Amino acid sequence: MSKYEATRVDPEVVEHLPVRGRTTPPALPKAVKGEHYFGASPPLGWVSTACRLDGACPKMVFALWHEGALTKSRRVKVRKKWFALFGVKRNAAYRALDKMVAAGLIRIVDKSPGRQTLVEILPVPPVSIAHPD
């Protein structure tokens, strides 16, 4: 065994070693090619308001903002395929939409029988967070 083989380092260990005095945390995982990803960054005020509502509202945040990111629009269709993906039953999703309307997060644009509900994502005031000194 040569002196160089004895100093071989595991690549996974090297990833977390400090670089010039700083440690670099591992990066967040990325979507693989062809996989859907959550391409939107909903404002914290919007998310925190929805998360304070009960029922399926927190899950509907992801369904609505994902559809908005795909269509690049504030007006989104409420699609059943996103209900299933985020674990929301159809009736629970529509109850959540009603709660989100009452909270001022969305506005129902079109709710015709036999068609997908069209909603508009509304802006909400930003949330201020006190940072500890």
List key phrases describing it.
3-stranded antiparallel sheet; 133 residues; 35% helix; alpha+beta; elongated; 5 helices; 9% strand; Arc Repressor Mutant, subunit A
Q: If you had to describe this structure to a student in words, what would you say it looks like?
A:
The chain has 133 residues and is α+β, with helices and mostly antiparallel strands. It has a domain at 44-121: Orthogonal Bundle (Arc Repressor Mutant, subunit A), CATH 1.10.10. The chain is 35% helix and 9% strand. The protein has five helices and three strands, in the order H-H-H-E-H-H-E-E. It has helices spanning 11-15, 44-51, 57-71, 80-85, 90-102, and strands spanning 75-77, 106-110, 118-121. The protein has a three-stranded antiparallel sheet with strand order 1-3-2. A hairpin with a 7-residue loop joins strand 2 and strand 3 (118-121). It is elongated, with a radius of gyration of 22 Å. It starts with 10 loop residues before the first helix and ends in a 12-residue tail after the last strand.
Give me the secondary-structure topology.
Layout: H1 11-15, H2 44-51, H3 57-71, E1 75-77, H4 80-85, H5 90-102, E2 106-110, E3 118-121
Antiparallel strand pairs: 1-3, 2-3
Beta-strand portion reads 5-15%
The count of strands amounts to 3
- What average pLDDT do the residues reach? 81
Low-confidence stretches: none
What's the SSE pattern?
Answer: HHHEHHEE
What structural class should be given to the helix and strand makeup? alpha+beta
| CATH architectural grouping of the domain at 44-121 | Orthogonal Bundle
Summarize the main sheet: 3 strands, antiparallel
- Judging from the principal axes of the Cα atoms, what is the shape? elongated
Strand order of the largest sheet: 1-3-2
What is the alpha-carbon Rg in Å?
22 Å
The helical percent reads: 25-40%
What is the terminal-to-terminal distance? 53 Å
- Do you know the CATH topology of the domain at 44-121? Arc Repressor Mutant, subunit A
Kindly provide the name of the CATH class of the domain at 44-121: Mainly Alpha
Count of helical stretches: 5
